[in-house]
TrEMBL record:
The lineage of its organism: Bacteria, Pseudomonadati, Pseudomonadota, Alphaproteobacteria, Hyphomicrobiales. This is Competence protein. It comes from Bradyrhizobium canariense. The keyword Transmembrane applies. Residues 1-153 form the ComEC/Rec2-related protein domain. It is found in: Cell membrane. Residues 314-353 are annotated as: Disordered. It comes from the Bacteria. The keyword Ribosomal protein does not apply.
């Protein structure tokens, strides 16, 4: 994000920002007045361009944008530059002599001002825009557009704006998963008919739920009771319907698998699933191999996006033996027709048979 902001500021200087706010050649009083207006305008432009340049990365990593960031910078940055940073530097220089307390006090005043400004801006209507998660490809396209805008000096640079616009539309059109499964199999989120995620969880991992909700651009907090709407649970497990009415089951006990395999379209369990289970299954072996999963419905099956996909081996997490044996999809099991036994019963046999 820092590189993107710097590149945006470099591009702003290249197109002539200093010339846009050059001081007029007139009286000293007018120049002083113009200097203040010029500096405010330059701060506004610098904050705007830096904020726009970092927006794709903030949306990708944090799933949110801050349209009033420029306003916060205008309120806080002058105090940071004039008070906080100088006081901090002078405090470090005065610390060996025991004369630093007054500088930390001044620095604290500036920091309190920054916090007050941030809280005021955050409380404004529409201060936070929520962005659904999107893949790395739109982010790469947005980076390419920013680089073209920032580095080229010919009119061709404006083609980067078209690339950036296409990347934004690409990211906003990304389809969200229909099912999210935690790596330990203890939490499952299922998208229902209302378009929202309905959560099945057997632990209190609030951080995971906050991340799921943020990635789905869902403003609800992890403790909201509505997250469990449509979820039915007992001591053996939980079930909740998909948007098409099919059931997703989280089986907690072995004796629940037989019933879940016959009723649900997808069964999630940390137990070994029976080989004759009629439902699609995410069991202990798959979770151990692929960790957390995101499932997107395709036909009657699902496209699987895994943390550890097939062929993935990282230096800090090398692939173990047997890992990667699962492909990137889940498909309903084909039910073979039973062969009817044509042998007549003993009671149907005649004496001459």
């Amino acid at each position: 994000m820092s590189f993107a902001a710097t590149l945006g500021l470099v591009a702003l200087v290249q197109i002539g920002m200093p010339n846009l706010f050059a001081s007029p050649d007139n009286s000293a009083t007018a120049r002083i007045a113009m200097w203040g207006g010029r500096e405010i305008a330059m701060l506004f432009m610098a904050s705007l361009i830096a904020g726009l340049a970092t927006t794709p990365y903030a949306a990708f990593h944090f799933h949110r944008v801050t349209p009033f960031g420029v306003l916060a910078n205008l309120g806080a940055m002058p105090v940071v530059s004039a008070l906080v940073m100088p006081a901090g530097l002078l405090g470090l220089l005065a610390a060996p002599f025991g004369l630093d307390s007054v500088f930390w006090w001044l620095m604290g005043i500036g920091i309190e001002w920054m916090v007050a400004v941030s809280r005021w801006v955050a409380a404004l209507p529409g201060a936070v825009g929520r962005i659904p998660a999107f893949g790395i490809a739109p982010l790469i396209a947005a980076s390419l557009g920013i680089i073209v805008l920032g580095l080229l000096r010919t009119p061709l640079r404006w083609s980067g704006a078209l690339v950036l616009l296409a990347a934004i539309l690409w990211g906003l059109s990304a389809r969200q998963p229909d099912i999210l499964i935690a790596g330990d199999g203890a939490s499952v989120a299922v998208r229902g008919r209302d378009g929202y995620l309905h959560l099945i969880r057997t632990n209190k991992d609030s951080f995971l739920l906050k991340e799921w909700l943020a990635a789905d651009a869902d403003p609800r907090d992890a403790g909201r009771a509505s997250l469990a709407d449509g979820v039915s649970c007992d001591e053996s497990g939980c079930v909740t319907p998909l948007a098409d009415g099919r059931l997703v089951a989280l089986a907690l006990r072995v004796d629940a698998l037989a019933d879940d395999c016959s009723r649900a379209a997808l069964v999630v369990t940390t137990r070994p699933a029976p080989p004759d289970c009629a439902a699609m299954v995410v069991d202990r072996q798959r979770l151990a191999s692929q960790s957390a999963l995101a499932l997107t419905q395709r036909g009657d099956g699902f496209v699987v996006q895994a943390v550890r996909a097939r062929g993935t081996s990282r230096p800090w997490l090398p692939a173990g033996a047997g890992e990667g044996d699962f492909d990137g999809s889940l498909a309903p099991k084909s039910t073979a027709p039973r062969i009817k036994d044509a042998t007549p019963a003993d009671t149907d046999l005649q004496a001459d048979d």
